[in-house]
Amino acid sequence: MRKTLRKWLKSGPKLGIDHIQLVGLSVVASGDVHWTRRVTWFLFLCCGVGLAIFYIGIQVSLFSAGYIGVTVHASSNTTTHLPAITVCAEQKYDFNNLHRLWLQYRPGSAMPEDAEMQLLDVANLSLSDIWTRGGYEKKELVRRCLLGPGTTCEDLGSWSSVFTEYGLCFTYTGGMTRLDGPLYGLYLQLNYSRHPFGQIFKGYKIAIHDIRSPAAFRINDGFKCPVRNEKFGCYLLRSVAMQTISQLNRRNAPCTSVLGYDMQACLSSCVYSEVARRAGCRLPYMDVSWPECRGRKQVENALNVAKEQIFSGKFNMSLCNCPKPCTYVMYTEHGDTTWNYVRTSTVKVYLTSIEKHSLVETYTYVGADLGGDIGGIIGLMLGASVLTAVQVLEVITSRSSKFLAARMKTGTR
Q: What is the dihedral of CA 296, 301, 306, 309, to 10 degrees?
């Protein structure tokens, strides 16, 4: 068996360096060429190899750096979905509703300033019950809502009640538009007039946000629509530009491609879980799996913890494992606020363009570019190609087989 293998290794062709079809290499390897010509070609080959190695090193470092480029795409849409709109009153309670609730459990007595806290113990109600029954009704806050001429908001979307730090609020989702501009966006007419004499109504807090983002977490990023001296309402024009961002999942800027993931929802769950853990219960607007706070003592403690951790900025958001989504919609708002000469407040939210703008991150230098540049510089400096590499491999294989055959012959002796 050993003899047969040695014979097979020895039977292969004996290839020398002159077998490699590389410009100048045969001249250097030939003994019949004058030494000056051999030295000249040797220097040329050394310079070519050195320059090729230097250039390849630069290109490899460029590839390793992973430089990013952004490509902008624009496409027309026949119908564009509007973002969610959340409307809150600056005060938590409708005075009349809260007063009616108080008289139900304390008939004939004057309603104190801390009626909310007293009702927690007197009536054994939860805070969410008090916010719901003592809060505002949607029909009393939002008197009119249109989506373009002749189309009511309810024709295309729907309103839903939601708890925030402002108490009971209302979120509109499902709005769509076919055209851009103020005439074809969302038109809200806000007019609250049920407060009694001497009870000041401060105005509204409105947030524009992604449908998947929790309103309770985004309401603080919203804008105010104040009421001036109970006589003049605000007039708000809010233009919204929508862009779809697609970024690469890189080591120094990680992101997640989980379908339906929203970073704001993840952050709110993280923050609210920490507040609930410290307080031992949750407030109505915290969408976490903790029991709701009951009784004045628990509620006041939870409110203090929330104020300290959330609104005073003590909680460290970087502790939450909430990476950015790799693809998300970014809303950029611009607006102006003036005063209406009537008590009614008007809010218009519209799109600056119905074109879909997408910003896509891509690597500016990929593997195909690296391979093409390496092949080009080797071909330019040395006149080599992939076939040259095959010839080099043939020479190495031939020399290795002859060497092994000689070693095996020596071993048999």
A: 180
